[in-house]
Each structure stands twice: as C-alpha cells, then as structure tokens.
Design goal:
Blueprint lengths: L1 H9 L2 H56 L3 H12 L4 E7 L5 E4 L12 H8 L4 E7 L2 E12 L2 E11 L1 H51 L14 H27 L4 H16 L3 E7 L6 E7 L10 E2 L4 H9 L3 E3 L10 H10 L3 E9 L2 E10 L7 H88 L5 H31 L8 E4 H12 L8 E7 L5 E4 L1 H17 L4 E10 L2 E8 L21 H7 L5 H11 L3 E7 L3 E9 L27 E5 L3 H12 L4 E5 L2 H11 L3 E4 L8 H10 L8 E5 L4 H6 L4 E4 L4 H10 L13
Parallel strand pairs: 13-15, 19-20, 19-21, 21-22, 22-23
Antiparallel strand pairs: 1-2, 1-5, 3-4, 4-5, 6-7, 6-11, 7-8, 9-10, 10-11, 12-14, 15-16, 16-18, 17-18
Helix pairs in contact: 2-3, 2-5, 5-6, 6-7, 6-10, 7-10, 10-11, 10-16, 11-15, 12-13, 13-15, 17-18
The structure holds adenosine-5'-diphosphate.
The site of adenosine-5'-diphosphate has 21 residues, from helix 13, helix 14 and helix 15.
Length: 811
C-alpha cells in the first residue's frame, strides 16, 4: 500500500489526473452494463411468465367442463387449440395422481408423470411456474389445478418456450454492451483530454521553470488562460525577465570598474527594466550632504543635469532624510516637489516619478530615479525592482570608488618608487663615483706616499750601511727605528692598496704552475730572520708527493707569509708548524702556533678590515689589522677560504684551502720571464741606465751600485730614457713604471720594439707588483720598491756577459 502511494506520488500530474477519471469511468460502466442487462432479462422473463400463467389459467378454466363430463373429445380440441398458440411446446391434462388424461403429443397417451415437477404440480393448490430445460431449449413449465366443487379433479400443464425471449435478451445485451464499451472509450478519451488540458499549462510551466533555473532566462512561458495557472505563468515570465535584467546588470557592472561606465550601466538598465522614459542617479557629496546628478539616461534636454538635491528639501531630500522610496503620479500637483525643481521637470516633460535611496552599510550615498512623461502609478513591484537595482548600484559604486582609490594609491606608489629609484640611482652613481675617486685617491696617495717613503728607506739604509762604523750606537739604533717604522708604513700602504683593489674587483689572478713545497720553503726562509731560534722553532709537516699547483703563486705566498708572521707575532715560545695536505681536488695549508690563541667571539671578527682582538696587542705586536682580511679576500679570489681554530692561551691553527687548479682564467705558461735574445751591443763597461722621474731614486741607485762597479746614468723621463738607451747602449736598464709624463709600460714596449735597444736587459723597479705583465713585455727582472741593494745586484749578476746567450731568470 505504501509503495503504491509512493508510486502514485511520483506520477506526472497528467497521470494523476487521468488515472482517477479513467478508474471512475471503468467502474461506472463495469457496474452499469451487467445491471442493465440483468434488469432487462428479468423484465422480459417476467413478462413471459405472466403471459404464460394467464394462458395456462385460461387453459385450465376452459377445460373444467370437459373434465367434469369426461369429454375427451372436447379436451382434445381444447389442447389442440392451446398447442397451436405461439411458443407453446406442449399442453396436457393430468389426473390428481399424475396420470395423463390428454396430451398435445398423442404419443404420450397412457403415461403417468412421477418426476419432481409433476409431483409438485399435481400437489399444488395454487398455479405453479418452474423454469426448465428440455434439451437445449429453455422453457417455463406452468401447472394450474382444476377444482370442481372444492375437489381437485385435474391439473392443466403448459410448457412455453423462452427461446424467443432469450434471443431478444441476447440482442439487447449485445446492444447495451456495445453502447457501454463505446461510452467507456469516450469516457476515457474525455478523461485523458480533460487531464491534458488541465495539466498542459502546468507542464509547460514546469518545463519553463526548469529551463529558467538552468540559466535560459530568455525562455518565455506561453500564457493562454487567465486562470491561476495563467497567473503563475505570468509571474514566472516576469521573474525570468527580472532575473535576466539583473544578470545583465551584474555582467555589465562586473565588466568595468570605471565609475562613469558603472553609473551609465545602472541608469540604462533601470530605465529598461521598469520600462520608464528616464532614469538617473544623483550622488551625495560627502562635504555638503546635497546630491547632484551624475548619470542620466533617456533625457531629451539638459535640464536634469542642473538638478541639485539639497538635504531635506523636495522629493529627493525626503528620500535622503528618511531612506525610504517615494512615488509621485503627477509631479505638477504634488506639494513635495521643490519649486526650483518644478520648472526643470516641466522642461523635460516629466509627469510621474519613483525615487529610491542608494544605501550602503546604513549610509545613503545617492538616489536612483525613474520617471515617465505620462501619468504612471508605480506599484509595490516597481519599487522592489528599483530598490534591488539601487542595492546593486551601491555595491558597484563602492567597488568603483575603491578601485579608483587603489589605482590612485598604486599610481602614487609607482611615482614614489620611481622617485626613490631615481634617488637611489643618483646615490648609486655618486657612490660609484666616490668609490672610483677613493680608489684613484688611494692609488695616487700610495704612489705619492711610497715615493718619499722609498727615498726615506733608501737613504736610511744607505746612511746605515756607510756610516755604521762612524755613527754612535745610539744614532745607529735611531736609524734602525726609522727604517723599521718606514717599512711598516710601507706595508700598511701596500695593504690598503691591495684591499682597495680587491674591493674594486680589479685584483687580477695570474695562475702559474709551481711546487707547493718549494713555495713553503721560501716563506719559511723569509720569516726565519724574524724569530729568535732559542724561543721559537719553525717546522714543516708536508704530505709526501704534494701535487703541482696551478694558481696565483704571489697571492698564495702573501697569504702564507701573513699567517706565518701572525703566528710568530703572537707566540712567545714553542714550535710553529706549517702543514700541507691534499684533499681531493684541493690542497690545505695550515699554520699552527702554540701562542696566545683567539677568544671565540673574535674568531670571525679578525677577518674584518682593521679588526684586532684588542688594541693593546697592536701596540705590543704592531700590525694593521688588514693582513687576515686581505688573506681571506685572496683565498676566496682563488676559489678557496681561510678558517681558524683556536683555544685561548693554547694556540691557533689557520687553515687555507684552495683548489689545486685555478679554473677561471687560461693558465699562463711557466712563470719564467721571457728569454731574452742577446743582441750585439756595444759594451760600455758596466753602464747602467736608470729611468725614473724621481731624482732621489736615481741618486740612491747610483750610490748603492756605484761601489759595486756600476756607473749609473739617470734619465728623468721616458723619452729621455729611450734616447739615452739608444745612445749609450747600457749594460742594463732599470725602469720605473709609474712616471708622471710617460708611462713605464710604454717605455718598456718601445725599448723592446727598437732593434737597437731590444737586447738590453730591463730590470723593472716599481711600487706596483705586476710582474707577469712586465715579463710578458720582455722585462729581464722585476723588483718592488724600495729596492734591496742585494736583490738588484743579484739580478745584475745574472746578466750574462755580452756575446754569450743572455738567459733571463724569473724572480
Ligand atoms: P694584524 O696582524 O696586522 O693586526 P691581521 O688581520 O693579520 O692583522 O690580524 C688581525 C688580528 O687577529 C690580530 O691583531 C690578532 O689580534 C689576531 N690574530 C691573528 N693571527 C693570530 C694568531 N696566530 N694568534 C693570535 N691572534 C691572532
């Protein structure tokens, strides 16, 4: 039952309508047809029965005389006339015992009837009717007793066939059945039609609603009737129209954030949706609280553009004040219309209007108007629609305003960023210029400082060498102090210059191939004079078969020298060890000392420029605080680094790790100066040409080399030098690189380009350490100022005598 009900609920409306009607029609005819048939049969049979009974009574009555008188002839006549009656099957007279007296069928004579029917017929006191069947024939059997003086003398029986009646009944039944089926079919058809006609609009409505729900807002439901379904259809159509309009508004509004376009969209759609002649938006000015027209659609004149809505005055003022919509059917008669507005409205021909507030978060920010040039009653529905549009407008207007603000902020920000970028670029330019100036200044200053410093050192050493015997010991010590201080100052200047070069990225790496072990030996030998053998012992712990390195030998040497001199400086007593190990494709060189150690918090700081553990140690040990910084810069330049491990009071280990092969630049050939081809030069004894723009430098050379058998001829500039070289063809030339008028590099190039001078060995003596370039240009040797007398003499000694192959030796 439950499932039947459930199925019924799921049926379509048409089926729900058609099913009960069809059921009713079927039940009606199902009951009606048999009923009618039954009644008809009964009527026909009852008629036949009445007629039969009447005939039997007449038969009995007419037979009384003949029975009383036993007149069989008369009886036969009566029976014959009875039997000739229509439908009479037989007629007979029985005596009370059932014995046949006369029978219409002569063959029955002498029979006695003892069957049930005959028994009840002979015993009956009133007329008797029984239905019977003889073969296939249905019949009525009538029996009427014949009384004479209250004595039952005989029974008259008549058999009347019902075949005719039944034939009629069958005909009639067929007719009724036919008519009934016809009526049933018509009834069902009627039910179906009725159901369809009632449900079709609903079906269409349902289909339309489904399509609308699926997003087809253009679907219009056909409305034929003005009944409830028709009204529902109309409502649906209106709803779809409204949804469509809102959808279009949403689409249009979301496609732009430009305030003017947003306002135009709102007025245009408001006009369309409400079918109005004019629509406009007035915006409230936050300062004055009054509203002014900002967008108008459908106006014919520019009258409305001047419309201003003061707070609290006129129709708009009322809406602004109350926040509720106001509709006016006839503007010319409405007292709420402000006087100054009446004229504007008349010029535009406005008769009716509807105004709603545009509100956002409880604040009325504007007004939305629709107006008609004909009298119009704006109803509840129009107000709702316009209110909805106003709500959309409020959001869109706010979004547009926010967007405007954000855009403005972004523009401001962009401008500020641009300004700041320009400022920064300017600062950067200035910084770059400052840095360039600083480097130039440092380069110039170091040159300017080094020239007199070299002179001081040179002269001091000269005086010390020549006057050691004559000078009082105290004076000699003073000279030693001068020499030491000047050396330190020179060291500092060189360090500062190195640092500025590294920082400016101008420090070149000149890789050469060399043996690490021999380089370490040179370093150890160099620092040896600095240690007191009774206090400090220098040791080396090198892995056997250390590989050949290809890297900047000068820089590596400078690092190791710095680590070694630090170790010596900060160690009182013990063994300082230089160790070297191979680590894959790298080598590590460590300098370990048992000295004072470095506190943990200073272990990184000491690698920064001018940083020392404490300044008192500087006073004690000297130093600039630049050594480690430069060393680390160099180590990194070579693709490695320096680390430190230390325990306070126990000593330190500085470990340098670098790749065995410096990979960034093509490898220069073996670090040997270019072989010099001896030229046949006129030998003027041991004449030396010194080209230097500093007369002191020439003087010092002359003084230092004079007593070694060299005659030094000076040239105070490049051009003079070239001239003298050609004229004198000296044994050797010393050349300063940084000269005021003519660069030493150019002079070297010219000397090597001139066939007359190209064979003369040139020893470069300069403050700049740029050996490789000098060798490449053909220099015989390279000494860094302040020159050491012994070093220059060693170089000169290496020059082979004229006529023999002069082979240059690198240094
Ligand atoms: P400088 O030695 O010229 O002062 P460095 O940059 O070479 O400059 O060293 C910076 C500081 O690091 C030193 O002043 C010293 O305080 C500390 N330092 C360097 N090497 C050692 C060492 N082997 N033992 C103890 N302290 C050291």
């Amino acid at each position: 039952m439950g499932s039947l009900l459930h199925r019924y609920r799921n049926l379509s409306l048409r089926a729900k309508f058609a099913l009960p009607i069809a059921l009713f029609v079927v039940l009606l005819f199902g009951a009606l047809i048999p009923g009618v048939l039954y009644l008809h049969t009964r009527t026909v049979l009852d008629g036949a029965r009445e007629r039969g009974l009447d005939l039997t009574k007449i038969f009995a009555h007419s037979s009384v005389q003949a029975v009383v008188s036993d007149d069989f002839l008369a009886l036969r006549q009566i029976i014959n006339s009875m039997a000739s009656e229509q439908d009479v099957l037989y007629a007979m007279i029985l005596d009370p015992s059932g014995r046949l007296l006369v029978h219409s069928d002569m063959r029955q004579a002498g029979q006695t009837y003892t069957d049930e029917l005959s028994k009840s017929a002979t015993q009956a006191t009133a007329p008797l009717v029984q239905e019977a069947k003889v073969g296939a024939i249905r019949m009525y059997d009538f029996a009427v007793p014949i009384y004479v003086l209250n004595e039952r003398r005989a029974v008259a029986r008549l058999g009347i066939s019902l075949e005719r009646e039944w034939a009629g009944i069958r005909r009639m039944g067929g007719l009724i059945l036919g008519l009934g089926v016809l009526a049933l079919a018509m009834g069902l058809a009627l039910a179906t039609w009725l159901a369809r006609s009632v449900t079709r609009p609903m079906h269409e409505l349902a289909e339309g609603a489904e399509e609308i729900a699926a997003g087809n807002l253009s679907r219009v439901i056909a409305v034929r009737e003005r009944d409830e379904v028709g009204r529902l259809g109309e409502t649906f159509n209106r709803m779809a129209r409204s949804l469509k309009a809102r959808g279009e508004i949403d689409r249009d509004l979301s496609s732009t954030l430009d305030l003017t376009s947003v306002l135009e969209t709102i007025t245009r759609h408001s006009r369309d949706v409400l079918g109005a002649d004019i629509a406009c938006v007035a915006a409230v000015n936050p300062g004055t609280k009054a509203a002014t027209m900002v967008s108008i659609a459908g106006a014919r004149t520019d009258a409305l553009q001047d419309l201003k809505v003061p707070a609290g005055r006129g129709l708009g003022g009322e809406v602004l004040a109350t926040g509720r919509a106001v509709a006016v059917v006839d503007c010319s008669k409405d007292p709420r219309i402000a006087e100054e507005h009446s004229d504007l409205l008349r010029r535009e021909g406005i008769v009716s209007t509807l105004v709603v507030p545009i509100s956002r978060k409880g604040h009325t920010t504007g007004l939305l108007y629709v107006a008609n040039r004909r009298a119009t009653v704006f109803g509840r529905q129009d107000e709702d629609t316009l209110n909805h549009l106003a709500a959309q407008a409020a959001i869109a207007i706010e979004n547009a305003r926010l967007y405007e603000e954000v855009t403005k902020h972004a523009e401001d920000l962009e401008n500020k960023v641009e300004e700041r970028t320009q400022e920064l670029q300017e600062i950067n330019r200035r910084l770059e210029a400052a840095s360039r100036h600083k480097s130039e200044f440092l380069a110039n200053m170091s040159h300017e400082l080094r020239t007199p410093l070299n002179a001081i050192i040179g002269f001091t050493r000269l005086v010390m060498r020549r006057s050691k015997e004559v000078l009082p010991a105290k004076q000699y010590e003073n000279l030693e102090k001068i020499n030491l201080s000047a050396d330190q100052l020179l060291l500092l200047i060189n360090d500062v210059l190195d640092l500025s070069k590294v920082e400016a990225g101008k420090m070149d790496v000149r890789p050469v191939s060399f043996q690490l072990e021999s380089m370490i030996d040179v370093c150890l030998r160099t620092v040896e004079p600095m240690v007191k053998p009774e206090q400090i012992h220098l040791a080396k712990d090198l892995e056997p078969d250390l590989p050949q390195l290809v890297t900047d030998q000068d820089k590596l040497k400078q690092i190791v020298m710095n680590l070694l001199s630090n170790a010596i400086k900060f160690t009182e007593t013990g063994t300082i060890t230089v160790s070297a190990r191979r680590q894959g494709e790298r080598v590590s060189v460590a300098v370990t000392d048992p000295g004072m150690g470095i506190p943990e918090d200073a272990r990184e700081l000491i690698f920064e420029e001018f940083r020392q553990v404490d300044s008192s140690s500087t006073r004690r040990h000297g130093g600039t605080g630049l050594g480690l910084s430069i060393s680390r810069h160099f180590a990194r330049l070579l693709g490695g680094d320096i680390t430190v491990q230390s325990r306070l009071g126990r000593g330190s280990t500085f470990t340098l790790t670098i790749p065995m092969r410096y990979e960034h630049e093509p490898i220069a050939p073996e670090a040997s100066p270019m072989a010099l081809k001896p030229t046949v030069s006129a030998h003027h004894g041991k004449v030396m040409l010194a080209i230097d723009d500093d007369p002191d430098a020439i003087y010092l050379l002359r003084e230092n080399l004079g007593d070694a058998g060299y005659r030094v001829v000076g040239a105070l500039g490049g051009d003079e030098g070239l001239e003298k070289a050609r004229a004198l063809r000296p044994f050797a030339i010393t050349l300063d690189l940084l000269m005021a008028h003519r660069n030493g590099w150019d002079v070297l190039r010219d000397l090597k380009a001139d066939p007359v001078t190209m064979g003369i060995p040139v020893i470069v003596i300069s403050v700049v350490d740029n050996k490789e370039s000098a060798y490449r240009l053909g220099a015989f040797d390279y000494l860094v100022k302040p020159f050491d007398r012994e070093a220059i003499l060693r170089a000169l000694e290496r020059i082979p005598p004229p006529g023999r192959g002069r082979t240059a030796v690198g240094g």
